[in-house]
Amino acid sequence: MVSEMISHSPEETRAIAQALASFLQPGDVLSLVGDLGAGKTTFTQGLALGLGISGRVNSPTFTLVKEYEGRLPLYHMDLYRLTGYEELGFDEYFYGSGVTVIEWPEVLGEELPQERLEIAFTSDGEVRRLRFIPYGKQYEERIKEFMHDYIRHRYQ
User: Fold this and answer.
1) Taking a C-beta distance cutoff of 8 angstroms, is the pair 117, 132 a contact?
2) Helix 10-21 / helix 137-154 crossing angle, nearest 10 deg
3) pTM above 0.85, yes or no
4) Which residues, 6+ apart, have CB-to-CB distance to 29 below 8 Å?
5) Strands across the sheet with 3-7, in order?
6) Helices 40-50, 10-21: crossing angle, 10 deg rounding
7) What are the residues whose beta carbons fall under 8 Å from the beta carbon of 68, sequence distance 6 or more?
8) Are 97 and 73 in contact (CB under 8 A)?
């Protein structure tokens, strides 16, 4: 079941992600797909807020992975500069005690975890469309709960 949300600003993108963070559990993997400037890092900043992480969160383009401590550890990967998958020990993140966010996940090919939540970003000027695509029953259930909860709270 694919779900969609529209964001009209970076602040709204962060708020959506911050709300999603309360539904995340250890070992969750989120793959963020979209063009440069589509909102992937902004979304990750919102997740960090929702996980109780303070401080600056930015794209780890030159370091590949940045780790942040909060309610759950957040492992933020940016694979933009990689041309192909190399054995980099990502499994310890994918199956660890934190939440892994991967920008440019297509680089991993077959190494990308089969069960994950993919979030596809498209931008039309000021409007961003976020498509939540769950791979695996656990993510299907969580997105269903998140969407229900988010809509209920938004329109109260």
Assistant:
1) yes
2) 120
3) yes
4) 94, 99, 100, 102, 113, 115, 116, 117
5) 3-7, 127-135, 116-124, 29-33, 99-103, 74-78, 65-68
6) 40
7) 48, 51, 53, 55, 57, 74, 76
8) yes
Indicate the SS3 state at residue 54.
coil
Is 101 strand, coil or helix?
strand
Q: Encoding tokens for residue 67?
A: 């780790």
pLDDT tens digits, the chain, 156 residues: what are they? 889 999 999 999 999 999 999 999 999 999 999 998 889 999 999 999 999 998 888 876 667 788 899 999 999 988 876 665 555 667 677 778 899 999 989 888 888 899 999 999 998 877 999 999 999 999 999 999 999 888 777 655
Distance in Å from the first CA to the final CA of the chain: 25
